[in-house]
Amino acid sequence: MAVSGGLLGAAGYRSLPSWCTPAYARARAAELVAAHQAARTEVVRNPHRNAEWAQAVVRAPRLLGAVQDLIGRDVAVENTLLVLKWPYQNCEVPWHQDGINDRVLLDPKGSVAAWLALTDAGRANGCLHVIPGSQRGGYLPYGPEPGTRVQRGRPIGARVAKDTWGVPMAVAAGSGLLMDVRLLHRSLANVSEKARLGLNIRYVAPGAVTMRDGSSPSLDPVSGTGWQSMKGRRTGS
Questions:
Q1: pLDDT > 80? residue 148
Q2: Per the count of CB atoms within 10 A, which of 59, 117, 123, 133 is most buried?
Q3: Is the pTM of this model over 0.70?
Q4: Structural domain that includes position 93
Q5: With contact defined as beta carbons under 8 Å apart, do 90 and 177 qualify?
Q6: Which residues make Cβ contacts (< 8 Å) with residue 125, sequence separation at least 6?
Q7: How far apart are CA 39 and CA 14, in angstroms?
Q8: What is the number of H-type helices and E-type strands within the chain?
Q9: 208 is a domain residue
Q10: Is residue 174 in a domain?
Q11: 237 is a domain residue
Q12: Assign residue 16 a region: left if phi > 0, alpha if psi is -120 to 50, beta otherwise?
């Protein structure tokens, strides 16, 4: 059944220019490339919980202000994911929706996903591809995507027609996208000579998270006072 267009309107996404300066983003990217190059790490889970650079990013004033305009003053981080696409390495992320997996279900009325470019992202190095308006279809059935290299636990690939290409979203370092948590998106391999780094953040308002196992969500509040009585919350770092 079709559902509302959501917080981000008919398209289901919005550009987020200049959450930081390009120089700041590229400096952080250079540090991360140096730290992870030897191991060729592709995914770092929840860096905001132990890395100062990520703790600063999730609280970046322009970013946080844009999120608050959508879901209110009380904002917490439910999850972050740093993806590093190394040159000529077949690191693809399949079609998926950020708000649903085997662990969690996010209420699209009280949550939003941010994708932030730490390096320039274009077609050659694996920028996001989105399907505008796909959030109107609600959450879709999903399952393992065979052959994907990104180690995300159980890779989540929404079942999308194989010939669906989507719209490529070229984004400069220091800018990004805000997305409805139901919006279908993916990224392809990096076939350029330099690494491509992006940080995905899931922001939520109080009551917007349902844990599939019935447990209390572990959240990291970044603004507001509505978290003090919530069970299972994290204090942030």
A1: no
A2: 117
A3: yes
A4: 13-223
A5: no
A6: 85, 119, 190, 191, 192, 194, 195, 196
A7: 34
A8: 3, 15
A9: yes
A10: yes
A11: no
A12: beta
